[in-house]
Amino acid sequence: MPNAPCPIPNSKVTFISILYGLFLSGLLLAYWSAQKQRSRLILLLIASLIFYASLQIKYIPLLLLGTSINFYLGLGISKNRQPRQSDLEDPNSSSSLTNPQETWNSRYLALFCLGIIFNIFLLLGFKYVPFFLTVAGNILDSPAALELARWYGDNIKPPLGISFFSFECISYLVDVYRGAPPSQNFLKFAVYKFFFPKLLSGPIARYHNFIRQLKTLHFPASHQLVEGLWLIACGAIKKGIVADRLAQFVNLCFDNLERAGSGDLRLATFAYGLQLYLDFSGYVDIALGSALLLGFKLPQNFDFPYFTTSIAEFWRRWHISLGDWLRNYLYFPLGGSRKGLAITCLNLAIVMLVAGIWHGAAWGFIVWGALHGIALVVHRLVDTISGRFSQIDRWWQSYLGTIVAWLLTQNMVFLSWIVFRLPDLKQSGWVIQHLWGRSPDVQFTQKIYIETLGLMPFELCLLLIIIAALMGCSYLFHKVFKLQLNWPIKILLVPLCFFAVLLFAPENSTPYIYFDF
Questions:
Q1: Is the peptide bond before 181 cis (omega within 30 degrees of 0)?
Q2: What Å distances lie between residue 184 and 76, 154, 380, CA to CA?
Q3: Active-site residue, selected from the candidate residues 208, 223, 319, 359
Q4: What is the 3-state secondary structure (H, E, C) of 81-132?
Q5: Alpha-carbon distance 396 to 387, whole Å?
Q6: What is the dihedral of CA 315, 320, 322, 324, to 10 degrees?
Q7: What is the pTM of this model?
Q8: Is residue 434 annotated as a catalytic residue, yes or no?
Q9: pLDDT single digits (tens) 147-178
Q10: Percent of the chain as helix, strand, coil, to the nearest 5
């Protein structure tokens, strides 16, 4: 796994569990039975704290403290957004002795910077200290720094969801700094921050979009109830049956690299790309469905990213909420594409480097971000050249050009997943070097495929192709033919999906991959 997952107690309320079904059912009954909005918010906050406590109780005080600090910083930023009338009218006030506008600007900016520094420090302090100490220890040849890095990594585990928590807080403070009204109600702000469907792995939601829904909050209509249950059922199938089964092969192959052959490594790379998508999108489906049953609509996070024909389009359809965050709070403030082609390319590279660092404290994530940054720069350059030559542009729009663009894009995406899955550059580099021309260990096929998986390599390859084909059929139905299952069919399929998960999901479910982030 990318990072060592945080220890999770046996009484966990994970999305793929009967315990979660009981938890959600009980909450829905109490939540919609409450008549007053305040009572519902209190129930939602308590339930979210219980949900998080079942996974990692020790960091609840820290997250509550972080929530409180960001809440009051938002109030402070808003309060100092304009010079006080008393400062303008009182000739003896200290601010009037200089310039009220300058005094206002200094307060305004100081509080904003304090908030950004606090949230970045919170993220860096838990996720990146061991990495920084290790790098420093290797550069300075300091055994003390290396020992401290090992101790820190062994004893201080990052809070679950800390990356999402910090990015949401930063987006809130930036929005307030830009002029949006701050939260005046701590309960509402705490519910936004701890809302359990999105708490651990997103999607990243903006405060004002989330809290605006309270004005029209009502019991879901019948089609919304069915849609919520359908999303949960689809997410359970993606994660419980497909992603967790793929994880068995991926883990076995990448944990036995020196025994695997080139064909095995290519299969594992393809399988990991499918596993990652189905694991994360399965989580998001359950999050969206759970939120819908509670009367909230969270932002979409995926839109068939493996059927995109450019890396820019891929990032508009993969982890959409993170892409929106990076555009609105980093790319545009850096200047976006308004300052010429060279600065645009530099901004794209910086944004993707930050995206890589956000995912984890390892060189592999930095390289992964850099690769995507280079790919975005190349795409921007090719797009600029194509815009100047109509023949080149027409070729990219042709059927052959579309196929070539899709193959180039997805090959880049899937190859880059290697350093994402194996952030130790020695391991990922070894895999890339041996994708061709290496024969497997004589016992690898017997032990891994036949004895453990019960499949021959060509059967597993066929299975992966079938999974990809089913994803392609879903893409055609939804994006090309604009077809949807009607709600009576969905309500009939929901219990069948849950029953299938009970029957076919592996006994030991793997943690969600993005829990590590």
A1: no
A2: 11, 40, 43
A3: 359
A4: CCCCHHHHHCCCCHHHHCCHHHHHHHHHHHHHHHHHHHHHHHHHHHHCHHHH
A5: 11
A6: 90
A7: 0.91
A8: no
A9: 999 999 888 889 999 999 999 999 999 999 99
A10: 75, 0, 25
